[in-house]
């Protein structure tokens, strides 16, 4: 998953959580506010009804002309009276006034209220579950009760407070044993609040829509900002890093972009590449010195054998000269010894030329050359003065190839020199083979020595690693050989032969020109 995708998802999650908490808290606050407002409204209505009841009680009730819908209250002792004109008047006490006002309020959708007690005189005033629970709590000293009820899909707020007996109530409730100050019951007020919950749902939908749109807009804005300010520049920097070192031209940021974190990173990358190139040049120079030093060291190891090869013809030439000096009067003898002198000079010249080829300092470059002849010369030079070493050559290329001839010469010389040293004074068999397989040049050099210790196989190509005594090796020969083969995109490996001794094998790809000539 890309960094910008993770970033956008994280921001969206954070925004969603933040809006979720805000949405929940806002919804809860709205409901709390509605309950508080409805409770205040219920308290105001309770106070108004209570004052109305007090007024009715203070005037010993209200009397109305008896008629349809205005009947006598059977629960009152003096429920009706007759005036001087013969009209019957029915009495309305506070409880009936409260009940009839409640009926009018219900018709107008303003809510309803009811007076009840644990021992109501009128069965119609029997308390429901809320009122019964509230009355029991009033007996325990609770001042008021509030509850939100949902019935038939409608919400309403129920409020109830106790009613105490005063002097105006004694006339009607003396028979029930009440005293002034007693709690004779309570009045409940119900306020419909469906309108409030409808507005809450509407507000919640509005908040949800705002949250979704805000999250989308914020995510899109962050995505675009991240794409143009971060991702696009990081991609460009990544392309430059991927193209290095083939492309060494860097487009460094300029202007305001150069001062931010990515601009600083780009500049630091350019400076790093410059340091790498400088280090690479220094390493190349050092490596060239090491290569040449190892070549000279290998050349020095050949001096003993080469000196023997030169001293032998020189001794013969010296004998020829002395014999010719004593036989100046024998022309045939003179001619024969002059021919021997010429052969000796040619032999010395060839040996010196081989030494010059090994010691020549040349850069890695492709050139036509006879690989088989080069291998043969290197092995013969390495074995000079070692008559107890038998050469076993299986060189099958048989034609010039376009390769890094001088580098391969040094590799073969290093491998052959190590093989000769491994076999020691006892001598043995030095095997070399060459072939072309699958477009690659393959060369193997093996000896009949003790082989390579298993714990050393993965270390022998490391610089300065050697198992030889002090003064017998630098530990750079195999490392230099490995680097040279690697420069030619090849591979150099080492192993132990089942029959004994070490086997070094290197393979390098051949250019198309060499493969065309082979075909």
Report the strand count. Answer: 14
| CATH H-level homologous superfamily name of the domain at 362-519 | Histidine kinase-like ATPase, C-terminal domain
Outline type: rod-shaped
Top-tier CATH class of the domain at 362-519 = Alpha Beta
CATH topology of the domain at 362-519: Heat Shock Protein 90
Strand content: 15-25%
| Low-pLDDT sequence parts | none
CATH architecture call of the domain at 362-519: 2-Layer Sandwich
In helices, the fraction of residues equals 40-55%
Set out the fold topology.
Layout (H helix, E strand, L loop, with lengths): L2 H56 L3 E4 L14 E3 L5 E5 L1 H14 L4 E5 L12 H11 L5 E7 L2 E11 L5 H4 L9 E10 L1 H50 L17 H66 L4 H29 L7 E3 L1 H13 L5 E7 L5 E3 L1 H19 L4 E10 L2 E8 L29 H11 L3 E6 L5 E8 L2 H7 L1
Parallel strand pairs: 9-11
Antiparallel strand pairs: 1-3, 2-3, 4-7, 5-6, 6-7, 8-10, 11-12, 12-14, 13-14
Helix pairs in contact: 1-2, 1-5, 6-7, 8-9, 9-10
Short description:
With 519 residues, this protein is an alpha+beta fold.
Describe this protein's structure.
The chain is an alpha+beta fold and 519 residues long. It has a domain at 362-519: Heat Shock Protein 90. It is built from eleven helices and 14 strands. Strands 9-11-12-14-13 form a five-stranded mixed β-sheet. A four-stranded antiparallel β-sheet has the order 4-7-6-5, sandwiched between helices. The chain has a three-stranded antiparallel β-sheet with strand order 1-3-2. Helix 1 (3-58) crosses helix 2, helix 1 runs antiparallel to helix 5 (194-243) and helix 8 packs parallel to helix 9 (405-423). The longest helix has 66 residues, at 261-326. It is rod-shaped.
